[in-house]
Each structure stands twice: as C-alpha cells, then as structure tokens.
Amino acid sequence: xxxxxxxxxxxxxxxxxxxxxxxxxxxxxxxxxxxxxxxxxxxxxxxxxxxxxxxxxxxxxxxxxxxxxxxxxxxxxxxxxxxxxxxxxxxxxxxxxxxxxxxxxxxxxxxxxxxxxxxxxxxxxxxxxxxxxxxxxxxxxxxxxxxxxxxxxxxxxxxxxxxxxxxxxxxxxxxxxxxxxxxxxxxxxxxxxxxxxxxxxxxxxxxxxxxxxxxxxxxxxxxxxxxxxxxxxxxxxxxxxxxxxxxxxxxxxxxxxxxxxxxxxxxxxxxxxxxxxxxxxxxxxxxxxxxxxxxxxxxxxxxxxxxxxxxxxxxxxxxxxxxxxxxxxxxxxxxxxxxxxxxxxxxxxxxxxxxxxxxxxxxxxxxxxxxxxxxxxxxxxxxxxxxxxxxxxxxxxxxxxxxxxxxxxxxxxxxxxxxxxxxxxxxxxxxxxxxxxxxxxxxxxxxxxxxxxxxxxxxxxxxxxxxxxxxxxxxxxxxxxxxxxxxxxxxxxxxxxxxxxxxxxxxxxxxxxxxxxxxxxxxxxxxxxxxxxxxxxxxxxx
Length: 542
Prior knowledge:
Blueprint: H1 2-7, E1 8-11, E2 31-34, H2 42-51, E3 55-63, E4 66-73, H3 84-96, H4 100-112, H5 119-131, H6 135-147, H7 153-167, H8 169-180, H9 183-186, H10 191-203, H11 207-219, H12 227-239, H13 243-255, H14 262-274, H15 279-291, H16 298-310, H17 314-325, H18 335-347, H19 351-368, H20 376-389, H21 392-404, H22 411-423, H23 427-439, H24 446-458, H25 462-472, H26 481-493, H27 497-509, H28 516-525, H29 529-541
Helix pairs in contact: 3-4, 3-5, 4-5, 5-6, 5-7, 6-7, 7-8, 7-10, 10-11, 10-12, 11-12, 12-13, 12-14, 13-14, 14-15, 14-16, 15-16, 16-17, 16-18, 17-18, 18-19, 18-20, 19-20, 20-21, 20-22, 21-22, 22-23, 22-24, 23-24, 24-25, 24-26, 26-27, 26-28, 27-29
C-alpha cells in the first residue's frame, strides 16, 4: 500500500481524497499519474536550482551616467501547464511588460521540460533583453534558438543590429559571416537581414563590404533585393565617393522595375554630375523627378548645370537654369549656379558672353542690394576670359573692384591680370600690377615670374628681367632654372647675343642646368664650339 501511494495517485473528478478539496476541471473523470513520468520532478528542480549557475547580466546606465553591472540568478520552475502555445503567450506577455527575469526563467523552464516556445515569443524575449541592455543574455538565448532551429530572419536582424551598436561594425560583420556560412541558417535569410547588414556597413562607411553583401543578394536563389536595398546601397556609395557603383545600383533597380525614392534620385543626380560622361542619365533622373511631381533641390540643379557646362552642353545647362527659376521648381540662382553657367560658357570658348553674363549678374545684384552672390570665383572666371581676349583694361577694372569690395586677392588672380597684359603686349602695365602684388605682400609663384620675364623680354626691359631673376634665384625655394631658360631664349630671339651669353654664364655659376632649347640657341650664337666649351669650362671653374 505504501509503495502504491508513493508511485501513483487516483484523483476523483470533483475532489482530492474525497474531502471536498480542490477541483481539476480540465482532467478526465478519473486519471492515474505516475510521478516517475513527470519530468522534471519538484525534487530534481530544487536540486538543480541549488546548484544552478545560470545568470542574466544587465548594464544599469541610470546612475549618473556610470555603468554598474547587476546579476540575477535564473531559477527553473516546475511547469504544470504543458501546452506550448499557452506558455509561449506567457513569455510574449512578460517580454512586452519588460519582466525580463520572469520571461527568461519561463523560457529556460520550457527548454528543460523539453517544450519549445514559438519563434514569435523568442523574438519578443530577445527584443526585451536588448531594450534592457542585456546583450550577453540575448546572445545566449539566440544561440539556444539556433541550436533548436527556432531562429527567423527577424531574430538575425535584431541581433546583428544590437551587436553593431554595442560592439562595433567588425563584431557584427564577423557574426553575419558566421551565420551566412551555415546553409541551414542562410536559407532563412530574407531581404530584411541583408538590408540590416547593409545599413550597418553604411553607418561605418564600409562600401566594400556593402558591395559584397549586394553581390550575395544578387546570387541568392531565395532572396530578391528590395527598394530599400538599393536605397541603402546608392546612398552609401555616393557618400563614399563610389559614383560608378551608385549608378550601377540605380540602373539595376530600374531594370527590376522598382520605383526609386526622392532621396535616391538626389543621390543619383549628384553621382552623375561627378562621373565622367553620365550627364544624360542625370538629365533623365531630373526629368523623372518632375514627371513624378517631385521638386529637385537647388543642389540638384547646380550639379546638373555644372556637369553640363563641363561637357560643353551650354544650351542644356541654360534650360536647367530656366526650369530652376520657373514656378514649378522656384529656386533662386546662387553663386554656384552662376559659377556653373560662367564655367560652361568659358569651356565653350564663348568668352565675350562670359563677360556679358558676369556684368548682368553684377547689375542684378546691385538692384536687389544682395552682396552674397558675387564671389572671387566668379571674378576669376571673368578674368580668365579677359586674359584670353587680351582685355587688359577690363582686367584692371575687375581687379580694382575686387580690392574695393574687400575680397582677399590671391596669387592666381594677379596671374590672370598679368596674363591679360602679356597677351595685350602691355609690359609696363604688367610691371605695375606686379609691383602692386608685392606691395600687398602676395607671394608670386612660378607662373607669375614666368609671365613677367616673358613680357619684360618682349618689352626690352632688361634691367627688370635681371632684377626679377635675381630676386628669386638662390632663395632655395625651388628650381628656378626655367626662369633663366625663358630669359635666355627670349634674349636670343631678340638678337641680344652678348646679353644671352652673360645670362648663360650666370646660370651655370648658380649651378642650374639649361634645357635642350637653350643649348641649341647658344650653339647658334656661339658658332665656334671651342668658344662655347671655353665659356662652359670657365663658368664651371669659377
């Protein structure tokens, strides 16, 4: 009898022990339980809990910004309820209420009792752990889900994003590669997982890894790239300066008949403006934005104008300018707009129109009392056209305007004015500009000095030539042999053989080497080769 009482118990349908006790309405009328078959038993659970080393760890960041680790012991519970769906709903509710410890204990108890929670409950539990900054515990749950074939694409996406935020890009990439290498896990990958990883790469500007994941999606038989995939790829490539890859991704997106979003079109227009020979695609994207009722930004318009101007498409550039001012777009031209238009006209060798357009911009600025449009770049573009046309007086006028307007005048600006004087054969004016440049403490460069030497030689200003060369040669700031070469060649062509010989000797004494043209001209002047060798030897000895 004692053995029977230890091993079995008969429970009537309405009472326990016939004394009007607790009722069990969900059991049959008479049920016999063998306590040895109830796994785990209460005694066994008590013994396991006493020896358990299962813990959950959290990072508490609410104490004045300091991190304090807290550890809670996870206990296993005896589960009278055996229905997996009911228990899964309990885990789901506990996770939503952020009762993390209770949810983890129930999850572990189900595992120990050989019960499987559903994937939705497991994902909710991992999300709750991540919300409470318990990444290590979440990874432990994730690993147990993986061994139990419970993980889904949503699970992988949650964990990859959390690992990236907590441990950095490299840890997330290592985990992704590990998961992707397992065939059974790779089968559950969907666009969400790949998009999550591309987003992780984008945040770290890792365009090489983003391209690799793109190729994985393209070669996958079970996954197709979505609009979000291409959006992430295009924006990442453009931000990292990989314009060709961005254009390839956009063209593949169009082939798959996916509609690009507005930010994708902005990025593609920028990529087309920077990539050689892609202005036609940029125009198509611009037109598509207008057809879809989108409003291109002023950056889009300026990028297209600049790209079209560089490729000599001046008419198309001005069409974009007209569309930009229209009521449909309604942008006001700024300095970048005018710089693109002036640069396009200059590229097309329409220098007179450059000067006219610049004058119109100045007049409009004066009428609107707006001083934010004209800048030194616009002045320099106009000065470049003046140099090509030899309009030295116009160049001087623009230089004076820049000085009176308070612009910081660079060496390049003075070079353009001196170049206009050189084209117009005005050596005295060029010398005055050079002296003004020196008075303003603006350091001349090789282009400045070369122009001054050429124009002074042409004007037979020999003293000035020697002074310019003497002021820089020997300063140890560079190789000034080109100045001597320019001077000697110019003097030879002017028939001043004695002066050319003196300059040649000074050049060799300074340790500078003449170029081939200088040697040839000196041979013509000094027809007696012996005399030339004497000159060279005497200069080398001295």
